Amino acid sequence: MVWMLRLSKFVAPLLLAPLAACATASTPDEAPPPWRIAGPLQAIITADGTTDPAIRGFWKSRGYGRLLRIDEAGVTQFETGAACYRPASSGEALSAMDSVSYRYFRALPEGRSAIFQLLRGDTNVVFDRLEALPEECTETPATTPRAVADAFLDAFDRHYAFFDRRPPNHSKRAERVNSAIRPDMSDAQLWDALAGYMDGLSDSHTKLIGEVGGERRRVQDGQGTTLPRMRAAEGGETAWLVGLIDTTMKKLGETAHHTGNDRIVWGVIDGRVGYLQIFQMGGFTAREDFGSEAWATAEMAEFDRIMDEAFAAFAEAGVEGVIVDLSNNRGGWDKIAKAIPARFTDEAYVGFTTATRGSGLPPFPHVIEPASGPRFAGPVYLLTSDVTVSGGELATLALRQNPRVVHAGATTRGAFSTPLAKRLPNGWLLELSNEVFAAPDGRIFEETGIKPSTALEVYPDGAPVEGHWRAVEALAEMIASD
Length: 482
Hints:
disordered N terminus, 24 strands, Tail-specific_protease, 8-stranded antiparallel beta sheet, protease, alpha+beta, 2-enoyl-CoA Hydratase, Chain A, domain 1, 3 domains, 482 residues, ClpP/crotonase-like_dom_sf, Lipocalin, globular
């Protein structure tokens, strides 16, 4: 049988501990990485609505350009760099990353440092305790064109991790901005100057969002070739997605399931091949409290419920292989990205690593632990395209470490980093890529994307719906011939 219903609860910890230790091994003269010696995860806000007294005070991040003031009432965030300021805000979040704040911490020995996390089990951001708020930190920052441009340029100079892969470098881009800045320029002119810095950056995780003259604006590059083509086609992106889902549901017949708040389609092809398409790493419920503990719990519970149902159905059908279709996956929560490969292994392993520019910390190993629910141990065929991005690429990286997985389709987008969201002094939002995700062997696929071992055209010009299902059928035939 290729099915694994439940791994002994004693096996995963035994596998995980030595594996994780090896991935961040330190010599006797080196300090262990913080995540190995930090205390248990605790909520910053306690049950009575006040902050945990142990974490109150002033904290400065290693990398990320953050300074936190934590008092009894809550957490106030300052942006730090060449200047230190609490940015202006209308109270409205301009993006998903702009809507979340630090909710958890793990104390480090002696209490002088701590790991902070936005979501439970999320990226480890190390902060060091300060005695007081630095004198230069202000809650009323200057919002002149020069001040806004300086904060924008300083953020890129300190934190952006990929100028080597997306030239020209910072200094050449900054020259364009500095030559355009004038004291009497309008907001529209300032916006155009900053947008000019990002011209040709080809990074979908780097964007500028703000309001100019009462109009919401957004600058974002690096969308690949398929998405811009479909958005420009008759009916746009929506008609294309509806066509993809309708075709897939018809092909799967009575086994078809469209679930998870429209984010997941699964079924069985010809009674012998399991099919699982995931459009997004999250959003499986209708909850609107993104980033909260209740949101995270509900999202994981719904994802696990769907996976349990799908994999149990695959087992009952006795499928010979499973197709994991991430060809239209737009990314999302990293925890979901790691939960997908967890359904295809009975041993813990490192799926990928993360290092953050300016943190001074070693790469953090993301360990894929076997799922507690039904799992599949037979052939797996992974389908990707240039639409596959962010969390979809993290799942791809982790799945590729499994020797039973064959990666097919087209090269992924090449944008991995969780966006670092930084408010500029005037309230505009800058998001940029500061985290370097890599395969366990150190290879980095930022900008280049991950190239499949088996090339298939997934969304061909002229037949973007029919071509997708032809690619799926090609994988089903490969499974039959194994």
